[in-house]
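Form 12-C: Joint structure prediction
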Amino acid sequence: MNKHFLGDTAVLLGRSLRHIARSPDTIITTVVTPIAMLLLFVYVLGGAIQTGTGSYVNYLLPGILIITIASGISYTAYRLFQDLQGGIFERFQSMPIARPSVLWAHVLTSLVANLISLVVVLLVALVMGFRSGAGVVDWLAVAGILVLFTLALTWLAVIPGLTARSVDGASAFAYPLIFLPFISSAFVPTDSMPGPVRAFAENQPVTSIVNTLRALFTEQPVGAGIGTALAWCVGLLIVASVFAGIAYRRRFN
Amino acid sequence: MLTGMSTSSTEQTAIRVRDLEKSFKELKVLRGVDIEVARGSIFALLGSNGAGKTTLVKVLSTLLRADAGTALVNGFDVAARAADVRESISLTGQFAAVDEILTGRENLILIARLRHLKDVATIADDLLLRFSLTEAGGRRVATYSGGMRRRLDIAMSLIGNPPVIFLDEPTTGLDPEGRLDVWQAIQELAQGGTTVLLTTQYLDEAEHLADRIAILHQGRIIVNGTLDELKRLLPPAKVEYVEKQPTLEDVFLSLVGTATNGEQR
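Section 2 - Result
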């Protein structure tokens, strides 16, 4: 590893965090959709949804957190695309820096921005009556899974960030990710769904992640589900980072 | 082709390019380019859009790998010693590569930190002063005029005093005053011993600035020489009497005044 890697990453991370501090709208627009869904489902539709558990906001929050991350990472693609478009990426690449720092700074920025967004959404949920008796270890496990999932989706976002031809193209990939939780156990239990839909819902990553988060929040045993959830996160992280690496080398060989 | 550099040794040659080729899929952009740039000189690469100027600059600044041929920058091979090349150069790309959300001063500090220099605040303030940006230094770059951005861009390239600077179309899109500012900055660079390779599609820019001019056409250098040598390629000058009219540029500059340093544009 280049001896400047950590220092250069820190300098570039500072730069991107300054961007976020100066345009907090990136946080606001990230949390608007999840909060709107939280309000809509808890106060409008939630009354008619039978989850077999107590409070619907408790049931819903894990899925909303996943949607928050899915909507937040599109800004990573956007910021990366802007850097490439504006030429500052090339300037960095022609300098005596540790080259991977440029991408890592964007990834870490995404992590920080998404954690801020998640905390905002969590605070709104608390106001709406979300309660959890989870202990410190459970919360750390929740944070760990969310961080892992954010990293996996962020590396996924790096790919369109590096390859897109337009700003719209760079951020459009996030829409399917935002809607993936709808066909999962995030909003309603999967046993109410017809066969093929249910089969998809139960075997896609969001369901195992949401179920694990829900179990942690409600102090239930996580069972084998946490293994599936972690496998999805780590698998996605590896695949996405490999393809991001290929996209990077194709552009700067 | 003119060759006037037969005596140059490696020490005196800042950039040496031999038979360089680069294709993008089927499109052959560089078809065997040869150039040599003497240390401390200004070398202009002249060519129309699509001639391959930017591709050549990208190969020399280690952003693209050539398909064939060799290129040495500051004595280092761009393919084998890329890290050493990056220590030796600065690139000012076709579009001002500045961070719009940061202030001018923050941009300079960012680059100084990435070059692992000490006392970054002093470096930033000195450059702001030198490029008449002191007043604007605390403002976000998004509020700058095109000329101010370009000056900041060039100032960023000077951090760490790299011996070789690449300027890809440094005055494209600038107003006449911005252009003169940039020209002056480039001349000061060369006077300080920096080697400058600039690309341009403006003939007068090459004429005004360059010690040597090469014309890149369809991926090949078709002529390479000093301005006088290039002029001698044409039939001898005819003497004609023409009434000297002021150019529009003369009129424009005399009306708006060239003394302003561009702070408030």
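Section 3 - Comments
Residues 246 and 253 of chain A are 10 Å apart (CA to CA). The two ends of chain A are 18 Å apart (CA to CA).
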